[in-house]
Design goal:
Layout: E1 2-12, E2 42-43, H1 45-60, H2 68-74, H3 85-90, E3 91-94, E4 98-101, E5 104-106, E6 109-116, E7 123-126, H4 128-134, E8 137-139, E9 146-148, E10 156-159, E11 162-169, E12 171-173, H5 179-184, E13 188-190, H6 193-202, E14 205-212, E15 219-229, E16 235-244, E17 252-254, E18 261-266, H7 269-283, E19 296-303
Parallel strand pairs: 7-13, 9-11
Antiparallel strand pairs: 1-16, 1-19, 2-6, 3-4, 5-16, 6-7, 6-16, 8-12, 9-13, 10-11, 14-15, 17-18
Helix pairs in contact: 1-7
């Protein structure tokens, strides 16, 4: 039996809206999913799981196995074949009461670095606890003050509307080779836990749109609505666990329908997941995709 955990750092290429499933009273009509304890936005593991499965099935050329909605449209169940890497990795349904569970567990994706505008340009905000939980090494700081990796003589910096006093310089070590990390490593501000939720929720992207009447092609009367999103260039981290209890993964290098070579050899269930994430960089996930939302890229990955 193979059990291994791989940690991925993701970066949003567009604003990302994973909604709560309906309207709510408040300043924003369509809010995004948040953690109940911290009130911080997140991407639920179920959203990642469904999107990655659909894209992997698309790449493999077996839409029957993409997910429940696709199966219903085709009037079929998942194939459930032992040699299907999609059903093997994500599980399958056969009828209303039978099937098999998958061998990959995907956790919620949580914020690692959050982009905020400041007087010195864009900065990325995090906390000591978040960095350490993700496995990054940080030196020379305490959890009650604000620190920065920037070379600056300023004793304070604004994070949006909030001005914070900078106590000193922090050193953060990120082991995987990542061009995205090279871009932000000297522009990070580490704040206390008590401030982080305020900084994040005050700097989410909020847009206003109007519903379109399909008959006239004009704006629907009284149909103005607002929605929020995790902004572009936010870094999130997620753990994915491969619990391959049978150790019989059907390796493949070519698509099911055409025989064309895949972009990578599918040698394990996590390789199927990584292939699905590759397509999320182009097709995105979450809602508001027709409004330019949703693309997300894998910036780094390592086993833990």
């Amino acid at each position: 039996m193979k059990i291994r955990t791989k940690r991925y750092v993701l970066m949003t290429l567009d604003p990302l809206h994973v909604g709560t499933g309906g309207y709510r009273l408040g300043m924003v009509d369509l809010s995004i999913v948040r953690e109940p304890g911290t009130n911080l936005p997140k991407i639920p593991g179920s959203s990642l799981h469904g999107t990655i499965r659909s894209y992997a099935a698309y790449l493999y050329g077996k839409l029957q196995c993409a997910g429940p909605s696709m199966s219903q449209e085709e009037g079929k169940n998942h194939c459930g074949e032992p040699q299907c890497p999609i059903c093997y990795t994500f599980g399958h349904m056969k009828g209303a009461s039978s099937g098999s569970k998958g061998v990959v567990n995907i956790s919620d994706a949580r914020i690692l670095f959050f982009p905020v505008h400041s007087m010195v340009g864009p900065v990325w905000v995090s906390t000591v606890n978040i960095l350490e939980e993700c496995g990054l090494h940080i030196e020379g700081v305490d959890t009650e003050s604000s620190w920065t990796t920037m070379e600056t003589s300023n004793k304070s910096v604004n994070l949006g509307w909030l001005m914070v006093e900078i106590k000193g310089k922090a050193v953060i070590t990120f082991e995987p080779d990542s061009p995205e990390w090279e871009t932000i490593k000297d522009r990070i501000v580490v704040v206390p836990e008590t401030l982080f939720s305020q900084v994040v929720n005050s700097n989410l992207e909020v847009r206003t749109s109007v519903s379109i009447n399909p008959e006239t092609g004009a704006a629907e009367e009284g149909a103005l609505f607002t929605y929020e999103a995790i902004p572009r260039s936010t870094f999130l981290w997620v753990d994915m666990v491969e619990d391959d209890y049978t150790d019989k993964f059907p390796e493949t290098e070519q698509a099911y329908n055409t025989g064309e070579p895949l972009s990578m050899k599918w040698s394990s269930p996590l390789k199927v997941v990584e292939a699905g994430m590759e397509l999320a960089e182009h097709l995105g996930m979450g809602g508001m995709g027709t409004r330019g939302f949703g693309r997300i890229r894998t910036a780094a990955g390592w086993e833990v």
